[in-house]
Design goal:
Chain lengths: 314, 293
């Protein structure tokens, strides 16, 4: 396993370097002199001179890149123009909020998606399967920011059951924190639930056709035992991998969900950074999500090998 | 020995019989037909926008601010008295244009790169594959937001950003299909009779990878329409006063209590058009899947 992880990390290095080149290249898409843009509206000559010096803007581009990458390797992703905080510190501050949202969304998605997928595969061709498929496809087609707006209208404005916006840290008031996060997590969770349902259904369908399920049934085991102990346990192997890979979707979904419910997380940080022309923050976020996604990919591969021991000797 | 086989005779990816069968399968699927009808409906609405008998999308009437649906304004009016139906119709144009153009950008850049990687293999493949992995590593929407932010907010830049973000899917697909086609006997035969690189790609590889590209393209249009609506919702796509469903929702969220219809119709429209492309894509995939034929 260790050798496998070491090999996967080695393979990931060129990809990380390419991501960093791409993120570095983003600033050259800016019209005009990037330093003038990075210096903000005040264009303080001292700031401009310091930025030019720091990013070696008078040097050739490869040297500029090496200086930028060297800083990034030491955890220096620049300073936010708006808050004057180091970018990495800013990301670290906002991340727990988004992680709470993502975890709650994932729990909701698993609670809806996996049972629906199992039921749909077990009742293949019946009206239950048909309804589950229609609901899943609708879940994939509905823009989650619109679903959020509609839920605010119904649950907050009309019924007054849950707050429409705001955030309470989990450490301060856990119950209120979960209450404020419930609606955003549901919005984010539904799209993921649809993806999970489709994957679970397809994995269950192929497992239900397998010899060991037929043997289990022939042994006279109860249908529930066959379904949960024999079929679902095996069908979950690819589904767990998919869950790990849904990380990107969760992050992207969080951008819009946090915007609608005014949650001060990672997603809101991206949007605010974009509108405040806080380019170092945007670059930092793309770099961090890219690296995190690669890490999740490695984790997915490792999970697959742990859950499927036949893979481990390859 | 293989040189005696006429490559042209076996190269057609969808010979007439299979093409008919694919169409038969597609026609017999109610969900695929529903998808086709939905897409066609929105296409016709978008094309006919300039001649439909509705007020201009930017025409304001200050005496009709935030009026609920009525005979004169079937979808109501918005916060500055513009006709919602007219803005919905013109919004369809922006949405479909964004969906189709960004997928065209993704296909035109991604497919040649993927084919090149699969055909030449070796270093070219390694470089293109690593490049694709790097692009795939950033979540689709975050990449599109970052690109739109650096390029500046506009519908054109949103389309470029979405197209570039969607490109890696097509590189991977075209590469995998090319690798699969390269192992076929008729490609070996074509090679044996001395057909050049361009001939091989144009006559044997490209026609064989088109069906999966069409399926993926249709499904990606659905994703691209949601992405454009998302970018416009965030203020990074279509700029006011030009109508866009996403931008309409962005404004509507401020008037949820006073004018809920402003939020209802654009969302339903996005849902229906995206559902249409998803159903159509699923239907095409089932119809063109050779394993089922």
């Amino acid at each position: 396993m260790l050798a496998f992880l070491a090999r996967r990390i080695l393979i990931a290095i060129p990809t990380v370097i390419l991501i960093s080149i791409f993120v570095f290249g983003l600033q050259h898409l800016l019209p005009g002199d990037p330093i003038l843009v990075m210096a903000g509206e005040e264009r303080d000559p001292e700031v401009i001179a310091a930025l030019r010096e720091k990013y070696r803007f008078n040097d050739p581009i490869p040297v500029q890149y090496l200086a930028w990458a060297g800083n990034a390797l030491q955890g220096d992703l620049g300073i936010s123009l708006r808050t004057q905080q180091p970018v990495l510190e800013l990301i670290g501050e906002k991340l727990p909020v988004t992680i709470q949202l993502a975890v709650m969304a994932l729990i909701i998605a698993i609670l809806i998606g996996i049972p629906a997928g199992v039921l749909s595969a077990y009742k293949k061709g019946t009206w239950i399967d048909w309804v589950a498929n229609i609901v899943a496809l609708s879940g994939l087609s509905v823009p989650n920011f619109w679903l959020g707006i509609m839920l605010i209208l119904l649950v907050s404005v009309k019924l007054g059951w849950l707050p429409a916006s705001g955030y309470m840290p989990l450490t301060e008031d856990p119950l209120q924190s979960i209450r404020t996060m419930l609606m955003p997590a549901f919005v984010l969770g539904t799209a993921i639930a649809a993806t999970l349902m489709r994957h679970t259904r397809s994995a269950m369908l192929s497992v239900l056709k397998s010899d060991y399920v037929r043997t289990a049934r022939a042994k006279g085991l109860k249908e529930r035992v066959v379904l949960i102990k024999h079929a679902l346990r095996n069908a979950l192997v690819p589904v767990v991998t998919v869950i790990t890979l849904l990380f990107g979707e969760l992050l992207a979904g969080a951008v819009l969900t946090e915007q609608i419910f005014t949650i001060p997380g990672f997603g809101k940080l991206v949007v605010d950074a974009v509108f405040n022309r806080d380019y170092a923050v945007v670059q930092g976020i793309v770099l961090c999500t890219g690296i995190a996604f690669i890490f999740m990919n490695i984790l997915a591969d490792a999970a697959y090998r742990i859950l499927n021991p036949r893979m481990s000797d390859r | 020995m293989t040189a005696v086989v006429d490559p042209q005779a076996v190269a057609d990816p969808l010979p007439p019989r299979r093409r008919n069968r694919a169409w038969e399968k597609f026609r017999r699927s109610p969900s695929a037909l529903l998808g086709g009808v939905l897409v066609l409906f929105f296409l016709i609405v978008a094309i006919l926008a300039p001649v439909l008998p509705v007020p201009g999308p930017a025409e304001t009437d200050w005496s009709m601010v935030r009026k609920p649906p009525s005979w004169a304004h079937p979808f109501g009016t918005d916060e500055i008295g513009r006709d919602m139906l007219s803005r919905m119709i013109w919004g369809a144009q922006a949405s479909l244009l964004a969906g189709v153009v960004s997928v065209m950008i993704a296909v035109l850049l991604g497919v040649p790169l993927g084919m090149l990687a699969g055909y030449l293999r070796g270093w070219t493949d390694a470089v293109i594959s690593r490049f694709t992995e790097a692009l795939l590593a950033a979540p689709f929407l975050i990449l599109a937001i970052a690109l739109a932010a650096f390029l500046g907010p506009s519908l054109t830049n949103a389309m470029i950003a979405i197209g570039l973000s969607a490109m890696p899917i097509f590189v991977r697909l075209a590469r995998a299909q090319t690798l699969a086609v390269m192992t076929e006997d008729y490609v070996e035969s074509a090679r044996a009779v001395g057909i050049g690189h361009l001939g091989m790609i144009g006559r044997y590889i490209l026609p064989n990878i088109i069906p999966p590209i069409i399926v993926q393209g249709t499904l990606t249009i659905a994703t691209a329409i949601i992405a454009e609506a998302s970018l416009s919702f965030l203020g990074l796509g279509q700029q006011p006063p030009a109508p866009s469903w996403g931008a309409m929702l962005n404004i509507a969220k401020n008037f949820l209590e006073q004018a809920p219809w402003m939020a209802l119709y654009p969302g339903v429209a996005i849902f229906l058009v995206v559902l249409g492309f998803n159903l159509l894509g699923d239907g095409l995939r089932d119809a063109l899947d050779p394993r089922d034929s």
